Amino acid sequence: MNNIEKIIKVSKGEEPADLVLKNAQLVNVLSEEIYETDIAIIGDKIAGISKGYRGKEAIDLNGAYVTPSFIDGHVHLESSMLMPSEFAKLVLPSGTTTVIADPHEISNVMGLQGISFMREATKNLPLDVFMMLPSCVPATDLETSGVDLNSYDLALLIDAPWVLGIAELMNFPGVINCDKSVLSKIQLGIDKNKRVDGHAPNLGGKNLDAYIASGVASDHECTTPDEAIEKLRLGMYLMIREATGARDLEPLIPVLKKYNTRKCMFVTDDRHPKHLGKHISRMVKKAVRLGVNPIKAVQMASLNTAEYFKLYDRGAIAPGYKADIAVFDDLENFEPKMVFKNGKLIAKDGKITADMTELKPPALRGSVNIKYLYNEDFQIKIPADKNKIKVINVIPQQLITKLSIESVKSENGFAIPDTENDILKIAVLERHKATGNIGLGFVKGFGLKSGAIASTVAHDSHNMIVIGTNDEDMFYAAIELEKSQGGKIIVENGKTLAHLPLPIAGLMSDKPAVEVMEKIAELENSARKIGCKIADPFMSMAFLSLSVIPEIKITDKGLIDVNKFEVTELFA
Prior knowledge:
- The chain starts with a helix and ends with a strand.
- Strands 1, 2, 3, 4, 5, 14, 15, 16 and 17 form a 9-stranded mixed sheet that branches. It has an 8-stranded mixed sheet with strand order 19-18-23-22-25-24-26-27. It has a 5-stranded parallel sheet with strand order 6-7-8-9-10.
- By secondary structure, it is an alpha/beta fold.
- The model has no long low-confidence stretch (mean pLDDT 95).
- It has 15 helices and 30 strands.
């Protein structure tokens, strides 16, 4: 008996199902209703949803609610700082069984090899991981990345069944100004009938029309109802984001309560490990608590995302769909008592039950390659007749920065940090090709009174970034990160206070999630001990090198005036 014949016989009730979930309150995202039924499963598929099915195994749900399991429509797995297997262990118990990953971070470091690494590390998980091919590597020519990926490079992978299209087009000016290299990537996605995701904060009017007309279909940067409504009216899919650093769900609730939500979906974008435990389920819970219809909230977490990415085998509970299922006691807390993937129970009562002990990460070369470093490399010589410097001002809980002009504190003709006025030295060291590039400047807002902090997680090219109160500790921190082939570190007086090694592309740990979270807690505590007044200094620091977000940033090529999109002088 072939598979089609077998599922037909089970659907008709002539053969027993492998598993029957009895007395389920089905949240039907197709008809938008809730009713009691039985669910018959054969292999990895749903055979039928009717009362009276018999199975080799049966579970009486006693009226518990059953929904399709959840899909994250846009996530950078690397931002969790975990191997994908550890990421999966955290999100599966909360009901997420499919994610659409953009390996943008590792691609900036290792190019196609990075994408291949992520595929090898995800292909045998009990979590389905599909990928979008990064469209902006590097993000700009104002920084040095490990690789430059063009449309010819992406064409090597676009036909793979695990590739669903082209990832976020952050270079929206390049789209609307008809940059040929950018348009060629859009064309690649269109030619293969695959999705092209967008990234267009505050883009509106005729420029937004042009952006969408080019073939870009979605956006995850809406922060206000007016922006979301304009994009919905033009046919764009809204990816509503709840990341560690950017949380847009609550501001967009008025849109979800009033307008058609069939083109809305939930995404997490960038999340640290401590925010992965609830994942998409927490977004569903929050939406419902704020007044969104529960069925529509579940729909946004499942069917809408599946249909957008043309994954027509999942996202609902109906005959022929994948048996990816979550079971809840109520539609308020959204804490799954059971999670099924491909018809198998993989998590129960918040704990993973799937066997993942045999998963081994593939090999990957080292990626922290800095030119031989000297303490003097951090010195800033003051030019003649100059006594003012341009300073990057950090704004709490925002990615944008402001420029200020400050008096320079000097010693022996060199500009030095001024801790009394919270003006610290910042350095960005090129770490891919050992070019020796070091961008030097000053930053205000961290509050350090001693020591230095450093990281190899620095968007988007992930060069090494160091902030400190003195050159000696900055030098020591940089050397220690080179030794560990990446990571995050806090030092004081030539000693390490806390250190999270990230040897995988300088972005991810090879340790279990619990160990990573312990190290993160140590970093946060040590940051407070040396005076840091930012709750998550590494998150703020990571975006100081992102030269596409105004107003002033710094890369390995120097201080960047983002408004003019050019390198600018440090001394005013």
